[in-house]
């Protein structure tokens, strides 16, 4: 095959790792990799290999107008002008940004009328984001054991009656169906036009294809024909898979198979099944073409779902990981000018932790206007029934596959694609996942993700968020879209009277993250929308700022920056419920973003949740520039006058212990020590204290006289440090008042 990358090694020992770039397989006893199916690479790249000569490729004519889509779960061609499937999410409220853009979920306020414009897209990354994500850790996708090839054979290989159609003439119509209690014929003639049909595998066990491949039996029946397990007698009896054609008399099927052959000869990607050969087999029934592929001994994602799903759904983190892992393969196809067309759980095989696209029968060139377009109802994009293919239509199928695996929904109901359920508990819990699915499956292909890499990056961000929320454990990650925050817009509790204050909109706008310049030229750049939202925030237009930032959130659901901006805008507007929700998301995923912790603490204090406010501040890690300020704020939050009452003994002691750990300037330390001691004196003097000597605070016994004396000394020390004369007088008066009273 051409285009393969070769390492410098000249061989790999049996049981060792595969030496081909990008492959994580193991070399078996036959000398071939159990994942990519290739042998150890030579020292220098081999000469390009082309497919053997075969019949000329004929252009496949589009299916006649009015051709129905296939039954649920089947794969069928679609032609120009054919019927339309009901678009997924066509009734979902959306917001389209001015000048074009990406849909935004706005459940509280409803839809906003769309405006005209072009496509939005984020920066296009060339990195493959899947490998580091899936290596190690308890959240890794569970492995699927390699299946013994012989055990995978079908016991009664024949096409189910529900999938038996004659497609001669362009309009599929059912054949081979049961009648009056009699089972349908596996072989026969179409009653409509007399075309012969057969739904049994034409190759029997023991057949020798092309004098080289000994058939062991049928593995499955795909959208374009039978799939066989065979042994390669010329290469150490290794296991291979032969993929035939659905109907050798069907010109469209033949054209699709030949087109597949030409393209697959050039493929080289670790997540796409390796192609060994292309052969023609002639026997007494006629001639047939076969593609010889590597055997992938695992389970399809459909089988994984059937075996492991709870209430029909896989763990959402696993479902996201599957899509992240396979998107680089789709991106590779797109870069080569092709689309996969028929992505679904049945067409992805997992063996151990490796994923492989196994059925390339529907692959088509983007610029081939005469190609027969195949898709599966419940997965294909709305435009596919109009024979319109693009990378965006592939990304739609990824979104639908993710929805089926993660939400436990069936792909089809009543013959049409199942709509995305807005009230699904998982989507209510994980708003970012909901927004991601809505963008991926938007009816308009221009409003989906701009590339497989972009989608993979957003999936990775959403996955980190899902894991962080579910496990309550930070999952920080880099961004290729936004910079880190430019400082902290409110690095304190902003104490204003009895409760925390609110940040100034202009200060927020000045410190929020900035879009990264990736050099990608995009029409109606989303950066302009972000800039406009920050301008609105600067001028105090909170509604305009919220609308713009909300749109960016739906464009990049895996990013933290839009969530931080939404939280800050909500806090400025007095919407503490929304502020807590979005601050909480950011702080949970990456607590080093100190503004999220400060904002969350302020909102929780206003809601009467002091202990949770302190916990949010203490979660800021030492690596954050806001670490010391957050700990100081945690002490202040403990001492703040609060609707739920004063801090108890344990809270005061915890605040005192925290203060002793802080390396602050002398004046600040003296002020905070005095505040802690005053709170302790008030609590003990009012009879609320529960402890006695032996339970000290700031080194002072928990006893009123000792605490008053320590407070007096602290206030006099603070007076000496204070430069303001009037404040000195006030502090001395407070010190005199703190002195223990004596009775004579």
List keywords for this structure.
Transferase(Phosphotransferase), domain 1; 744 residues; Serine Threonine Protein Phosphatase 5, Tetratricopeptide repeat; 21 strands; 35% helix; six-stranded antiparallel beta sheet; disordered N terminus; 20 helices; alpha+beta
Structure report:
35% of the residues lie in helices and 11% in strands. The protein has 20 helices and 21 strands. The model is unreliable at 1-11, 34-38 and 42-139 (pLDDT under 50).
E-strand count: 21
| Secondary-structure arrangement, i.e. CATH architecture of the domain at 51-143 and 313-473 | Orthogonal Bundle
CATH class of the domain at 51-143 and 313-473: Mainly Alpha
- What is the radius of gyration? 33 Å
SSE class: alpha+beta
Largest sheet: 6 strands, antiparallel
For the record, give the distance between the C-alpha atoms at the N and C termini, rounded to a whole number: 104 Å
């Amino acid at each position: 095959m051409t285009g393969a990358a070769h390492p410098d090694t000249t061989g790999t020992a049996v049981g060792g790792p595969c030496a081909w770039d990008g492959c994580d397989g193991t070399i078996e006893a036959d000398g071939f990799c159990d994942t990519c199916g290739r042998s150890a690479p030579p020292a220098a790249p081999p000469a390009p290999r082309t497919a053997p000569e075969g019949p000329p490729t004929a252009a496949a004519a589009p299916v006649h107008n009015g051709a129905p889509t296939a039954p649920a779960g089947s794969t069928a061609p679609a032609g120009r002008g054919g019927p339309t499937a009901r678009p997924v999410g066509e009734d979902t409220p959306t917001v389209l940004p001015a000048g074009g853009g990406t849909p935004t979920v706005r459940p509280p306020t409803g839809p906003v009328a769309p405006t005209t414009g072009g496509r939005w897209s984020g920066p296009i990354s060339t990195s493959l984001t899947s490998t580091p994500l899936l290596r190690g850790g308890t959240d890794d996708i569970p492995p699927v054991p390699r299946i013994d090839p012989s055990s995978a054979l079908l016991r009664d290989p024949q096409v189910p009656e529900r999938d038996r159609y004659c497609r001669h003439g362009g309009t599929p119509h059912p054949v081979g169906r049961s009648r009056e209690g009699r089972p349908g014929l596996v072989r026969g003639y179409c009653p409509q036009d007399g075309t012969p049909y057969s739904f049994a595998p034409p190759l029997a066990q023991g057949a020798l294809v092309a004098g080289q491949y000994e058939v062991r039996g049928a593995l499955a029946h795909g959208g374009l024909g039978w799939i066989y397990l065979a042994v390669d007698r010329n290469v150490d009896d290794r296991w291979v898979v032969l993929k035939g054609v659905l109907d050798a008399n069907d010109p469209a099927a033949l054209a699709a198979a030949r087109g597949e052959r030409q393209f697959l000869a050039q493929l080289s990607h670790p997540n796409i099944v390796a192609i060994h050969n292309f052969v023609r087999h002639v026997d007494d029934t006629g001639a047939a073409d076969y593609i010889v592929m590597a055997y992938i001994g695992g389970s399809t994602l459909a089988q994984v779902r059937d075996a492991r799903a709870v209430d029909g759904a896989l763990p959402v983190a696993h479902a996201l990981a599957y899509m992240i892992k396979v998107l680089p393969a789709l991106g590779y196809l797109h870069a080569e000018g092709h689309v996969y067309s028929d992505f679904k759980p049945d067409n992805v095989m997992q063996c151990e932790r490796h994923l492989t696209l196994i059925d390339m029968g529907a692959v088509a060139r983007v610029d081939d206007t005469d190609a027969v377009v195949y898709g599966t109802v419940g997965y294909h994009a709305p435009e596919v029934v109009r024979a319109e293919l693009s990378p965006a239509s592939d990304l739609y199928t990824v979104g639908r596959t993710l929805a089926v695996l993660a939400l436990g929904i069936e792909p089809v109901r009543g013959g049409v694609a199942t709509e995305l359920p807005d009230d699904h508990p998982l989507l209510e819990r994980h708003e970012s996942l909901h927004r991601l699915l809505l963008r991926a499956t938007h009816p308009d292909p221009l409003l989906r993700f701009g590339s497989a890499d972009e989608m993979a990056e957003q999936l990775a961000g959403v996955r980190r968020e899902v894991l962080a929320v579910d496990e309550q454990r930070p999952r920080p990650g880099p961004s290729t879209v936004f910079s880190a925050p430019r400082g902290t817009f409110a690095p304190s509790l902003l104490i204003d009277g009895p409760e925390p204050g609110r940040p100034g909109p202009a200060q927020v706008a000045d410190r929020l993250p900035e879009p990264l310049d990736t050099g990608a030229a995009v029409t109606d750049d989303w950066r302009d929308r972000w800039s406009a939202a920050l301008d609105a925030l600067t001028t105090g237009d909170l509604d305009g700022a919220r609308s713009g930032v909300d749109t960016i959130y739906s464009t990049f659901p895996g990013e933290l920056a839009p969530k931080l901006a939404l939280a800050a805008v909500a806090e400025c507007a007095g919407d503490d419920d929304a502020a807590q929700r979005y601050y909480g998301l950011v702080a949970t995923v990456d607590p080093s973003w100190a503004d999220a912790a400060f904002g969350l603490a302020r909102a929780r204090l206003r809601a009467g949740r002091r202990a949770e406010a302190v916990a949010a501040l203490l979660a800021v890690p030492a690596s954050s520039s806001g670490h010391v300020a957050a700990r100081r704020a945690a002490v202040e939050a403990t001492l703040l006058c609060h609707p739920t009452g004063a801090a108890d003994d344990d809270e005061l002691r915890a605040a005192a212990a925290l203060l002793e750990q802080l390396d602050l300037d002398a004046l600040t330390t003296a002020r905070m020590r005095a505040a802690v001691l005053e709170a302790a004196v008030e609590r003990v003097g009012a009879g609320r204290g529960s402890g006695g000597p032996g339970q000290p605070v700031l080194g002072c016994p928990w006893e009123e006289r000792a605490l008053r004396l320590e407070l007096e000394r602290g206030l006099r020390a603070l007076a000496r440090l204070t430069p303001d004369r009037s404040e000195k007088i006030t502090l001395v008066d407070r010190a005199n008042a703190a002195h223990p009273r004596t009775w004579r």
